[in-house]
Amino acid sequence: MSSSAAIVTGASQRIGQATVVRLARELYALVARSLPKLEEAIRRPPAYHRGVAGATGAVVLMSSNSALFPKAPYATLGTINAAIVALAKAFSDRGIADEGQVNRVPGPVMTGRRRSCLERRAPPHRMSVEEVTANFPGEAGIARYGEPEEIAELALLASPAAHWMTGSTLRMDGGEVNSI
C-alpha cells in the first residue's frame, strides 16, 4: 500500500481527472468524495484509503492569473482566485510547521470555467464564442490554451521528491505572465 495520499478536488472532470490519472500511475493512495467517480476517472480500481493517517501530505491549489490581473467583468473570478492565493499562503505556513507542503499553480487552461467566461465575453464584444476563444491566446500573449494533462504533470509537486518545495507559485501559463 502506498505511503503517499492525494486528495484531488474536481476529480471527475478536466484538470482534476487528469491529475488523478497521473497520480494513479505513481501508486498514490487516492481519496475522493465519490469512489465510483474516482474509479471511473482512472478506469481501474485505485489504491484507496478510508483514512490517511500516517501518510505524507501535500496540497497543490489550482487557480488563474486573475488574482494578480483582475478585470472588471471578471471581478468575481479575480476575488475567488485572490482567496485561493491567500489560502495557499496561510496553508503553507501551517504546512511548514507540520512538515507538509502547499503550492499553487496558475494557468490559462481550457476548462468549463474558462469556457463559461469566454461565453460571457462574446456578446459585449459582438463576437461569436468561437472568435473570442480563438482570439484570447493572442491577447494573453500565449500560443495556445494549456491542456489538463499538462497541468496534471505538476501533481508531482506533491511527491516526496518535491517535499522541500512549499509556499511557492509555479507558473504553468504558457508565458501569460513573465515572472523571471
Could you please describe the fold and organization of this structure?
The longest helix has 23 residues, at 75-97. By secondary structure, this protein is of the alpha/beta class. The protein folds into two domains: 1-55, no CATH class; 59-180, NAD(P)-binding Rossmann-like Domain (Rossmann fold, 3-Layer(aba) Sandwich), CATH 3.40.50.720. It contains six helices and five strands. The strands form two sheets. A three-stranded parallel β-sheet has the order 3-4-5, with helices on one face. Strands 1-2 form a two-stranded parallel sheet. It starts with a strand and ends in an 11-residue tail after the last strand.
How are the elements arranged and paired?
Blueprint: E1 5-7, H1 14-25, E2 29-31, H2 35-42, E3 58-63, H3 75-97, E4 101-106, H4 112-121, H5 129-140, H6 148-152, E5 168-169
Parallel strand pairs: 1-2, 3-4, 4-5
